[in-house]
Amino acid sequence: MKKKILFVCLGNICRSPSAEAVFKGLVRNKGVHDKFEIDSAGTYGYHEGELADRRMQSHAVKRGYNLTSISRPFKPGSDWDRFDYIIAMDDSNLRDLKEMARYGDDLKKLFKMTDFSKNFNYNEVPDPYYGGEQGFELVLDLLEDAGEGFYEFLEKG
Ligand code: 4NP
Questions:
Q1: Is the pLDDT of residue 37 over 80?
Q2: What tens digit of pLDDT does each residue of 95-152 get?
Q3: Gyration radius of the chain's alpha carbons
Q4: Residue from 39, 53, 90, 127 carrying the catalytic annotation
Q5: How far apart are CA 127 and CA 131, in angstroms?
Q6: Is 10 close to ligand 1, i.e. is its CB under 6 Å away?
């Protein structure tokens, strides 16, 4: 059975589409992409239908990631059932997702990306939207690092 993973941030135009692309790249490099279904969503639908933020895209492409996903809001009615792991980027996303949980079992699927960090000591993937260019690089650094940790966590499970 495929492992189904949903990465979630606020707008689904910076952090979670990057998490989706970074983790897709990671499983492709390991030759196990057919064992995964990977998607992303936002807790807030304002950017629905948009491609990823251009600044995020330009930083991602320099590392070989094409951000092709289209922003969509998290859908509590179907996403809790469809995915095995729902990975929030920060504490605010985590709180919003908890409020959208229907049952206690939904909460068992919920994690924060930085729970899986290996080399970085951040407890959130910071929102880069209103900051400078280095914020986008930090997002990618954190996602590459925590992506490895998340993969190891899945391998153990
Ligand atoms: P994301 O970044 O949650 O990483 O996609 C943001 C995108 C848009 C906004 C905030 C954060 N916004 O306020 O529109």
A1: yes
A2: 999 999 999 999 999 999 999 999 999 999 999 999 999 999 999 999 999 999 999 9
A3: 14
A4: 127
A5: 8
A6: yes
